[in-house]
Design a protein that fits this description.
Largest sheet: 7 strands, mixed
Oligomer: single chain
Low-confidence stretches: none
CATH architecture of the largest domain: 3-Layer(bba) Sandwich
Distance between the termini: 24 Å
């Protein structure tokens, strides 16, 4: 039997669920279709071993927007964030940096390496906070099309220009952060390489990015930690109690009270187009679901090159989608362990916050650059950078009593090895991780009970992330805002009427933020109401 809805959403990742919950809240009948047996997409928690709840991909809640949390009342449905203690950055000479969130304390930490840099840091933070305020506003905007001659698009462009008329003040500061490398930008402020790597670690190792700290455009990623307001009733950043999958659980419960339906084990095989419009989806099981609106939470390449006949799309658009580059070189290693690693450079009992739940291994900018150079030659980084997270220290519900998890995120590993695939070769990745971590935490291997190694290609195979990239495409200047995912179609619409995109392929990109899903819902509801006003019934 064919089922019919106002909106069918392809993919139960967090953006699809956000979009679906807002549409259902507005009164639309919504069905979310997820091919896997559980929802969440890259924000998913799975019982990899009995009693161990592992965050398969996303592991820290750093960007999920307070507006979405408050609007959908997610805290009523089990969403709770546990704050993390300060991160530790390990250096090669036995020293380390405590990355205090408090500016005064971090200045004192930096003063151990450069008094000049400690004095410069408050001004640096103030500058990024000013720029981040602009970027926060931009994240929630529907990108206009400056090349369009349609009257409605010209009107949208003028409205956008008016909203951001204040950009003339500080324009060149914004231009610098959008175009310069993270290394060059940091070098304008700081002299110590320790300070530069402490502040530039995430631009060089931002989730899924295959880039260098010296690559033009990476300074933009320095703003990442400033793009969320942590001073609202939604709370700050940290670990989601019970794992990142609790975000999806809360979104499902929130949406279901408005009538949103969620189906798992329901893989979409194609988007149905009739009369030049999207009219539903066909599942791989053969079942057809009709809908007045189809929303893709899948990546742009899969949506437009696999689920649609390219003949229904403009050639220029197809070319842009084919050229949407997305390959990742990041990997993850999950370890179930009996005892916590003991780092040789410090006694955690001396730290006022106890055991360091997050430790970075990246002692210098050259270290990061060498890892990047290795992958450019299609080699596994001889010394990968690593973020070693011990989530069970903060959230004991993730493991059996007396046991712990190591959630290790790092880079770089080629998306594909020189020969064949990663199948049967994951031990090569783990060997590099083991050697690197053992250099700082000798003997940690003796505590390993279980291990899971995920190469970049595994994220594509398991989670349908193109090229293993959680952003669906690189966060680079040529793939941001007006060009994400393609010229003329950055406004969450597509060349096929009634087909929308709400995934990380759209502005502002990946990370568990909820913004693409929210913005897509805004556009869909705007079009829906416009059609109603035009007397065309409940069809777009």
């Amino acid at each position: 039997m064919t089922r019919s809805y106002d909106a069918a959403i392809i993919g139960g990742g967090h953006n699809g669920l956000v979009c679906g919950a807002y549409l259902a809240k507005a009164g639309l009948s919504v069905c979310v279709l997820e091919r896997r047996p559980l929802v969440g997409g890259a924000s998913v928690t799975e019982e990899t071993w009995p009693g161990y709840r592992v965050n398969t991909a996303a592991h820290v809640m750093g960007l999920f927007q307070p507006k979405v949390i408050v609007d959908l009342e997610l805290q009523r449905f089990g969403f709770e964030v546990l704050p993390l203690p300060p991160e530790i950055q390990l250096l090669d000479d036995g020293r380390y940096v405590v990355l205090w969130p408090d500016t005064r304390r971090l200045c004192a930490e930096f003063a151990r390496f450069s008094v000049k840099d400690a004095e410069a840091y408050p001004a640096y933070v103030a500058q990024l906070q000013r720029l981040a305020r602009v970027m926060r506003r931009l994240m929630w905007q529907i990108p206009p099309d400056p090349a369009s001659r349609r009257l409605s698009d010209r009107r949208d462009l003028l409205r956008f220009a008016w909203r951001f008329r204040d950009l003339t003040t500080g324009f060149y500061d914004l231009y610098d952060v959008m175009t310069q490398s993270a290394f060059d930008y940091l070098s304008r402020w700081f002299e110590s390489d320790v300070v530069k790597i402490a502040l530039g670690y995430y631009p060089a190792g931002a989730a899924g990015q295959t880039t260098s700290i010296r690559a033009p455009g990476t300074a933009y990623l320095l703003l990442r930690s400033y793009l969320r307001d942590n001073n609202t009733t939604a709370g700050g950043t940290g670990l989601v109690r019970g794992g990142m999958g609790r975000i999806a659980d809360a979104l499902v419960l929130s949406g279901e009270r408005f009538g949103m339906e969620v189906r798992t084990n329901a893989e979409v095989g194609s988007v149905v187009v009739r009369g030049g419009r999207a009219s539903g989806v066909l599942l791989t099981s053969g079942e057809e679901i009709t809908a007045k609106v189809v929303v893709a939470n899948a990546d742009a390449r899969r949506t437009f090159l696999q689920l649609l006949d390219p003949e229904v799309l403009p050639d220029e658009f197809v070319r842009d989608i084919r050229n949407f580059h997305a390959t990742s070189t990041a990997f993850k290693v999950h370890l179930a362990i009996e005892n916590l690693p003991r780092y040789r450079d410090f006694n955690f009992a001396d730290l006022e916050f106890g055991y360091p739940a997050q430790v970075r291994i990246a002692p210098s900018t050259d270290y990061m650059e060498t890892a990047y150079d290795d992958v450019r030659r299609n080699m596994i980084a001889r010394r990968p950078y690593l973020t070693v997270l011990t989530p069970s220290v903060v959230d004991p519900t993730l493991t059996p009593p007396g046991r712990h998890l190591l959630d290790i995120y790092g880079g770089h590993v080629p998306f594909k090895p020189l020969e064949g695939t990663w199948e049967g070769k994951h031990g090569l990745i783990f060997e590099r991780v083991r050697e690197t971590l053992a250099g700082y935490a000798p003997g940690f291997e003796a505590s390993i009970i279980h291990e899971q190694i995920l190469a970049p290609s595994d994220f594509e195979d398991i989670l349908s992330l193109p090229g293993g990239n959680p952003h669906h495409g690189e966060i680079t200047l040529d793939q941001l805002f007006l060009r994400r995912p393609a010229a003329h179609y950055a406004n969450y619409r597509s060349p096929v009427p009634a087909l929308y995109i709400a995934s990380a392929s759209a502005h502002p990109g990946g990370g568990v933020s909820g913004i693409p899903g929210y913005n897509a819902a805004r556009v869909i509801l705007s079009d829906w109401r416009r059609r109603l006003r035009a007397g065309r019934g409940r069809s777009l």
